Amino acid sequence: MKKLLQLVAVVLMKIINWKKLSFLLAIITAAGMVLQTYTLPPKTMAFFYTSLNGSTVHLSETLSLERSEQFHFVPTAPVVSLNSSSVQSVPVAEGRARVSPLLRSSSSRRGRRRDAKIDRSNEQKAVSSPPPPRTPPTRLQRYIWSLPPYEALLFAKREMQNVLTVTEDPELYAPLFRNVSVFKRSYELMETILKVYIYPDGGRPIFHVPHLRGIYASEGWFMKLMEENRQFVSKDPKKAHLFYLPYSARQLEMALYVPNSHNMRPLSIFLRDYVNKIAAKYPFWNRTHGSDHFLVACHDWGPYTVNEHQELSRNTIKALCNADLSEGIFVAGKDVSLPETTIKNPRRPLRNVGGGKRVSQRPILAFFAGNMHGRVRPTLLKYWSDKDEDMRIYGPLPGRVSRKMTYIGHMKSSRFCICPMGYEVNSPRIVEAIYFECVPVIIAENFALPLNDVLDWTAFSVVVAEKDIPKLKEILLAIPLRRYLVMQTNVKMVQKHFLWNPKPIKYDLFHMVLHSIWSSRLNQIQVSES
Question: What would the mean pLDDT of 519-523 be, rounded to a whole number?
Answer without folding.
Answer: 96
